[in-house]
User: Fold these one by one.
Assistant:
Number 1:
Amino acid sequence: KMGLVTTLKGVTRHVLVFKLVPRGGPLGHAREGERLSLNSLLVRKLVVLGVTIVNVDHLFLSRGNVVNLGKLAFDKYHVCRVRGIQCLAFALSKALAKLFGNSILGGCRAPFRRFRVHRCPRCGACGHWGGVCVQFAALQH
C-alpha cells in the first residue's frame, strides 16, 4: 500500500487518504483495536510523505465514542450507500477546501452533489457519474 502512495505522490502534488471508518456489530467491535493501530500507523507513515489524512471518526461516532449505526449498512460493518457516503463526501469536501480554499465548494450548492461512481452496484458499469445510471439515481431519492 505504501508503494501505491509513493507512486501517486510522484504523479500528483496532493494525495488524500481516509482513515479507517469505525465499524459496528460484533466484528467491528472485535477489530476496533486493530483499526486504531492502523490509523495511527497511517498518520505516522503518510504525513512524512506529505499525504493529507482525512479523519472521519467524528462523523461516524456519536457522543461517548459509540458507533452511529445509521451511517452503516445493514451488516453494521460497511458504510451505508446513502448516509455513509454523504459523510465521506462531506469529509472529502472539507479536506479539499483546506487544500485549495473554500472556492472549490462552488458557492451555495451542496458540495459534491455529482460524484463519480467507481463501480456501480446497480448496472455494473465503471466510471459513470452518479446521476447518469437510472438505477443509481433512484437510490438517491
Number 2:
Amino acid sequence: MKEAFEKALFFEISKWENSKLREAALYALQGEAKRIRPIIALWIAKELDPDYENYHPMIALELAHTSSLILDDLPCMDDAKTRRNKQALHLHYNEQEAILVAVGLISESYMQLHLGAAKLNDCGAANRRFEILNQSLHFTALAGGLSGAPLGQWMDLTISPIHSHPLEKLMQKKTGVFFESAFVLGWLFGNGSLEKLPLVVEASNIFGIMFQIMDDFLDLEEDAQERPYANYVLKNGKAESFRYLEQKKERLSALLEQLGLFKLQQALLEPLEHLLLLHQ
C-alpha cells in the first residue's frame, strides 16, 4: 500500500513546473518517511471500497503534513538539524527556499483535493461530490488554520515550567489535527456515511492523543533532560498514563467497530498494545 501511494505521490510531483522549488519539495518528501497519515486514510477508504484507487486525497494529506514539518524544523521554531534521516530542508537548501516550499505545498494540497473530487465522477460517489469536497475542505482548513497545527506549534514553543498549557489540548492541536484529516478524508472519499462522520472525528481525536502519548514513552530519556513539563508520561506518571491509554483504547476499539473498520482496528491497536507491553 505504501509503495503504491508513493508511486502516485511522485507521479503528481513530476507534473509540477521544473524549478529549484520543485527540487527542494521533492527532497523534503523523500527519505525515510512513514506516511502514517495517508496510509491510515487509504486503509479506511479501501475498507469501505475494496476497489478504491483515488490517491489524490492521501497526497493532499502528505503535502500538508510535510509543509508543517518543514516549518517546524526552521531555526526560529524547533531548529532541527535532521528530518527523515537526512539533513533538514532549510540546511540542505536554505531558509528562504524552505519557507517558499512549505507555503507552496499547502496550496498544492488543496489542488490534490480538487483532483480527488473530480475523480469521483468515475465512481459511485459522484452524486455526493459537492458534499465530500465541502467537508474535505472544512477539515483540511481546520487542521492548517489558526485553531489547528499552528496553534499547537505555538503552544509547544511557549510551554515552560512557568508557562504551562493543557497537554491534551497541545497534543490534539499539534499532532491530532492531521490524524483527524486522515480519518475524515479516508472516510469521505471512500464514500462513508456522512451521518457517521462525528464518530469518525471522535475516533481520530482519540487515536491522535494515544499516538502522542506513545511517542512520549519513546522520548522519556530525552525529555527528562530537556522538557519534562511537555511530556505527558513524565508529568502524569507511567501508571496513570497506562490507565489513560487503556481507557482510550477501549473507546477507540468500540468506535471502529461501530464504523465497521475492523481491519483498521487491528492495524492500529495491535502495535499500541505491543508498545504498552514493552514499557510496562
Number 3:
Amino acid sequence: MTSPPPRSSGGRVPPALVTDGVIAAIFFAIPLALIIMLDLDLEGWFIVVALAALGVLIVEHEIVAPPRRGRRMLLKAQESYARAEADAGVTSADAARIPTGDAHGAQVLKRLRWYEGRKRETGEVLADVGRMRWIDWHDPALSEAAAKLSDDVSGLSAINDAVRNAATLLTRAPGWEDAWENECGPLREDLDIFRELCQEVGDEAPAAPIADSELGWARACGARLTALRAQLASGALAPGAALDELDAMAAEIRARADALVRRALAAEALPGEEAGLAHYREYIGTWKLPDDDDRYEYSGTWQGDETGVSPTAGEDGERAAVSYNPAATIRLHDYSPGIRAAGIRWQGLATASQYSSPIERILDAYLESRGTGKK
C-alpha cells in the first residue's frame, strides 16, 4: 500500500523541466527574431502572436501547472489523513462492536488492520512529500508517488466508513437502515445496467424474446432487496444472513447477464458464424479480479426500475438518481479500500462471494462482440 519515499532533487534541475524550458524559449525566441529582423505584414504578425501564445500555453501547462497540481493533490491527501487520524478513536470503538464470528465483519476488520499497520509509514511519506520544493514537482517520479500517496490516504479514510457501516449494520444499531441501503447500492447499480443490457438485446429482433423474461426477473430482484430490508427490520433475518443474500444475488446478476449475452449473440449470429460469441468468450475468459488492470468502478448512483415505483421517483414519474458510497460498503468490489488485503479472490462469474464487480463490463463486451460478429 505505502508509496515509496520521494526524493528531493537536491538542487538539480529535473531533465523534464529543462526540456520544457527550452521548447518554451524557442516559441518566444522565434517571434522576437521575426519582429527584429523583418518588416512584418498582417499575416506575419498573426504568426508572431500564434507562436507567442503557444509559448505561453507551454509555460502554463508544462512549467507552472505541475507544481500547482501536485500541491493541490498534497493538500487533499493531508486533509484526508488528518480526518483519518481524528476518526481513529471512533473507528477503534466501532471495530470493537463488530461481531468477530461474522465472515463479513471479519473481512472488514482484516482490511482495517492492514491499513493500521501502514498508517505510520504513510504519515512519514506524506510529511516527506510536504517538504518537496517547487522544482521537485517537475520530476515525474514525484508526481507518480504523490498520486499513489493520495490513493493510499483516501483508503485510510474510506476504511473508517466501512468499519462504521459494518458495526452499525451487523449490530442493528441506530442508522442501520442507511448502512443497509449503502450495501444494496452496487447491486441496484448492476440492476440498472442489467436492464440496459436487456434493452440492447431487445433491439435485435432475433434476441428480443430472450430479453423480456430477464426484465421481469430484474424487477423481482429489486423487489427482493426491498423485502430483505423489511425482514431485517422485523428481526426475521440476521444482518449477516442478509449480506449472504446479497452475495448470492450479486452472483446471480453476473451469471444471468453473462448467459443473456451468450444466448443473444448466438441468436443474432448468421448460420455458421460465431465471431461475436467467440470474441465475447475470449474477453470474459481474461476476467481475473481483483488483480485485473481492466477493472471497472461503481459510479455511486442508481435509478431504480422502469416501473417508477421507486420511492425516489419524481412527481412527473421520472426516476431520480440515488447516491451511495461504494468505498464504504462492507461487501467487496473491485476498488474497495484494502481489497487485496481481504484475501478474497475472484473465482468466476457465478460464484457467490463477498464480491461485486460492475456488470457494465459485460454490457460493453456484448456491444463490442455484437459489432465484431457483424463485420
Number 4:
Amino acid sequence: MPSTPASTSPFPHPYWGVWIGNGPTYPTIEERLINRISYSIRTKPQWKLKYTNDVIASKWRQELREQFGDETRTIEDVINYVFKELDWIDRTESTLGGYTLGADEKILASSASESVVGAEVKQKLQSQANELASSFAEVDYHPGTTNVVDLVHPLLFPLQYGVTPIKDANGELVIAEYLDTIEQKKQGVRWGISTKYQWLPATMTLDESKNFQFSSYINNLHPVKFSGLYSTIAEVFNATVPALDFSLSFYASGNRSKVEVPGDVYPDSVLDYWDILKKEEMAKEKEIEGYKIDYIQMEKLYHARQREWLKPLKVSFDDDPKPTNPVDLKQFSKLKVIVKMANIELTPENPTYPGGSWHVEGSINENIVATVLYYYDVQNITTSTLSFRTGYNEPNYAQDDVAWLEVYYGLKDEDIILGPLESVEALEDRIVVFPNFFQHHVDLFELKDKLKSGHRKILCFFLVDPYDTLTASTEDVPPQQEEW
C-alpha cells in the first residue's frame, strides 16, 4: 500500500478559503459556455448518434450561433471545442462500464437503464434492506425531519474523544483522545475539524480476487444478524470502484482550465491611454475657466476603451484531458468506508420532501474524499434531482481592473463567485460518484400520485482518503451498542 502520509495526500481540503488559494480557478465566460452547451447536448436522447450525424450537427451548430453568439466573441471556437470535447467524452464513456460524465468530469452517473450493479444484487439489497427496516422497534427519523428514515447512519455511536475505548499500537484498549495531528490531515485551513467526535468507517480489505470485502463491522449494522447484507453492500461498492478511480484521478490532478487567460491581454496602446486622457483633461482645466476634471467620467472612458481593446481568448481543444495524478484504489490493500442507508418515505398525509441543505460530507476528522450514492428503490415520486455547486478562487487580476473582470469572467467587483454545476436526476438503478469537494443537496420532490405512498431509498458510501492513516475505524474501536 502506498505510504504517503495524510498531510501530503493529493486530495485538497473540502473546507477552504479564497485567500488560501486552494480552490478551483473561476472559469471564464467561454469555459462556462462550453460546459453549459456540452452538458445540454449530452442530456439529449441518443446524443452519441446525433452529434456525429452531419445534418443534425450542422443544425445544432447554427442554433448555437443564434442562441449564444452574443455571449462571446469566439462563438465558432467555442462550438468547435464543444464538438471535440463530445468526441472525447464519447470515447471515454465507452471505457467506463456504464458510467457517464456529468457537467464536470469528476461527477459520474451510471445509466439507469443499464445498471452496473445488476438485477440480482439489486433485488437482494431491496429485500435485505426491508428486513433491516422491519427489525427496528421504532422508526428512526433523521433529526429535523418527518420523512427521512435512517437505517444505517454514522451519527449514531461515533467515536467520542475522551470517552470511546480504542486499540493502541499494542492492541490494548485505551480511551481515544483528540490529537493535534488531526489538523495535519489537510493543509491550508484549520476549520472543519471537530474536537469532540469522529464518524467511524469500516475497513474493507482487498481479497485474492481483487475485490474489497468488509474486514471490520459497519457501524450500526450488526455483522452477524445482517451478514448477508454485508456481502451485498460489498458487491455494490466493488461495482463503483472504476468510477471512483476515474473521479479521484481527476480530483487528485488539480484544477483543469479549459480556457486560459494569458498575462498579455492588453495592446500596449491601452496601457498609455490613461496618461493620454489625463493630459487632455489637464489641458482643458488650464484652458477653460472653472473646468474641473471628472475622474469618474475618465474612469468610464478608460474602462470602455479597455473593453474594446481586450484581446479575445484562445479557445482550442488541443489534447484529450488526462489526469496527471492517476488513482487506482486497488493499489491500496485496505480502504476505510463509511456506510449509510436512508429512506425518504412520503405518504398522502406527508406528501412532500422539502429538499436538503447545501453541504459536503463529514469533517476533516473523517477526511472523506468521495461520495457514492446508489438509488436502489424509487417509487411514486416526482422528478428528484441532486444538485451541485462549488466556490472558486478569485481571478488573479490587477486592482480595479473592472473591464478585465467583466470581459473575461462576466463578473463585477464584489460578486459572489459561487457557481452551479448542473444536477443529476435520482433514477432507480442509478449510481452517482463525486469528490467530496463539490457542495450538493437534494432538491424538493413529492408524491406523483397523491393517493398512494412513495419512497426513494439510497445506499451511500463515504470514502476516507486512502492515504490517511490517522482516521480511526471499526478495526480499532470495539462495538459500542450495548445490545450487540
